[in-house]
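Box 4.2: Ligand-aware structure prediction
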Amino acid sequence: MKHLDITIPLTSATYDELDDTQRNLVDKARAMTRQSYAPYSKFHVGAAILLDNGEIITGANQENVAYPSGICAERTAAFYAHARYPEAKFKAIAIAAHDTSGNEVVMPISPCGACRQVLLEYEQLAGADVQVLLAGADEVYILPSVHSIMPLAFVDFD
Ligand code: THU
């Protein structure tokens, strides 16, 4: 028997410590929290995806009275990005959220399992790491890749 630890390399940065590209992506994710349709959870999430063609595709969570029919901000953006630009590779994603009070969450939120699985596939299609930026009110978590937050993922085994 052997014991293994899986670690996640996470950098916590202030907004000012980000580079211009990262700041722009975080700004767009934060702005998109205002576009969220979340009358049930009242939890508003925005996402912004940078593609290698320079386009930034944004999305916000969309809910429905039949609760499971809603979808997260990350998948709203990811599915549209790949539908709109099927040849483009994902380079980075930023995610932000505000709560019922309208204030940005203090602790960065991180994508649910379904979104990680979806983003992982686009990372694999890109053939390179997709940086993940998780914005909180005072700090931004920088993760180097989707696979770093999705260890032991199910992948196509063909
Ligand atoms: N949500 C997202 O859009 N992204 C996440 O990373 C976590 C959760 C949404 C789903 C639902 O509309 C609301 O936030 C509350 O869970």
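In the box above, the bound molecule is tetrahydrodeoxyuridine. The mean pLDDT is 96.
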